[in-house]
Amino acid sequence: MFEALVNWLLAYMLHSTVLLGAALLAERAGLWRRLTTAQAELGWRWALFGPLLTASWPLIAGLAPHSAPAVEPQAQPWAETTRQVQAQQHSVAPPAVAVAAAAVQAAAAPAERPIDWMPVAASTATLLWLAGATAALLLLSLGAAWLAAAVRRLPSNVDPQLTAQLESLASRAGLRRPRLPTLRIGTRWSSPLLTPGGTICLPRWVLTLSAVQREAVLAHELAHLQRRDPAWRVASQALLALAWIQPLNRLALRRLDLLAELACDAWAARLTGSPVPLAESLLHAAEQPTRRAAPRLATAMSSSSPLIERMQRLLQENPMSEDKPTARKTRWAIAAGMVIAAIAVPTVVVHEAGAAAPILNLLDRVGGFSRSVFHSGSVTRIETHGPEGRLRVDIRGTVQFNDAEDDLTGVLGSLEVVDKRNGHVHHLQMQSEEGKPTTRLYERDGQAVTTLNEEDRAWLADVVELIVQATVSADEQVKRLLARGGVDAVLARIDKQKSDASRSALIRALMKSGTQTGATLDHLLAATSALQSDYERRGALQALAGQNMNEAQQLLWLQRTTEIGSDYECREALNSIAPQLLDKPEVLAAWMAARAAIHSDFEARSAIETLMSQGKASPTLVSTALSATTELGSDFEHRSALEAVARRMDAADAQQALAYTTSAARIGSDFERREALVKLVDTGKLQRDGYGAVLGATEGMGSDFEVKTVLEAVAAHMPADADLISRYRKVARRLSDFERGQAEKALDHLEAG
Q: If one looks up domain 132-319 in CATH, what number appears?
């Protein structure tokens, strides 16, 4: 895992240097001047953010195993004479293998490899990068919290003329009221600025400007809001903190700041009808004494961008002609050019060597056993790290296996295996070049071996299985195993897996192959207990959920779900079993326990909603869902869950209606409680006791308006029952005169009848 981080960081540095350097050279060559501001801005954004994608692509692609080309295997002995067998170059059959004399190979091979200091330097640099990135991101988070607190302390705007100007500009720009920013006035900063929270902070000197100048300032800040510049600025600053070792990022950010200011200047000039007031406002801003630098997470009007260039653009050029939006073809052309330029750069891979091994092993073993696989074209690297040691497999080309997949029969390209586990060192090399014979060299603890003993063959079978897992998809592995040894062969391979990803992938592939027996399901349910990754356990459980499990199996399945630490993964697992969940008391109790393991109210509510969306809801299922709603702490999520239950419950059932209103009474927000109660009443199916339960649930509601709204809903549906009317009026009696009058008026249709 740590070596993967080293490789990614080096790849990012190389790709970002190429992209940002290309953008800078294009600017120096005058190519950017032929583009509009929007096109230039898009180009710099791709240069800044693109390397994150291009450097990560080998990692993303390497996480998905792919099938190797099907090549007919050819068995090959390990003990050979010194003669070389000429390889047959054929597109299907692998070349024959000849082994050089062991004594010659052993004499030629050094006992120890020379120390390669590249991994040491790369590992040290990566540790420093991690420390710096962590500190920078922490400082950025603290800065965001400080900025939010500082903005809250600024006085709100009380000038109605300024508010009217803002609303008029927003209306002309097509901004709706929910997106209108908040206005605050203060002396903390000398420049007008827009914060990530959507607040415009104006210094007091803005109030001394003329009306048209103030309008220009507001229009400039609205332009930033319209372009979503605060969000882009937060993303840019986060990237700057994460990739602090790339100095060209700061240059790109300065270019983007300038382009954003130029675009907002032009937008504001078009909106107000003249560039002159904004230019005058920029001069006023430049003349102000700087008290504090503008926060780096805020977009400031008089920032570090060149004032002369902005004034020239406003007054000498034609900002009133709208800069046409970047055409889709242009956007794709710029994006494609940037990506191709970065992908063309070779991937950086740091190989393990002598002095670097202690650092890599120490960091990789912190998490116990781990396995990483990287694919890049015809190159595949497999690494495993665990308490017993470290193994690395490098493949350039493809390898062939025997029918049993426990031996290598050939290689089209090269293969190297270095295994330093359990106190031994195994080194295997195989190579085949066009026009030359294939050679194979195997060393155990530095000694060449020509005849494999039982222990060597067991080691080789373990390595071959690892290569198969990395280069052959789980679906194809299961298909081959089923053809060779049936389900038992698949189960045996699943049990041997140390990697969570491999075990989960094989379980999912086996489930896709068809319906499984009860014994197989029992075996796999037991196997899921070894999965430590929440993601992989959820994936395996989801695959099992589609099978016809009996009550005991569903109970064990739900128990496995409670052991998932991630609320999201736990909810996803519960959602998968909802269509097959047995309507049995013990199973529903186990479902409740699994739901209780979810701490997020959002995820818990989603699980309840999914349960209520499956087919016909039985009374016991509804009762389970209603009981689950009582454990939700968020009033909004609580109300939303109750509404989902209301759509499926039998409101005529007095017991269900009482359970619903009892749960609703636990909602603290008067608005949310009212919404939940009205939803139940509007079903129109409540009986006399149900309406009484709704009236009882209004106890504790402090808002007269919300209580009145519930009473009006009840009055529209309840029967003309004297006892109900009496209870209704008792609740209404504690309301204010107006609200009580409205509630009493709602009863008129009952008394008239």
A: 3.30.2010.10
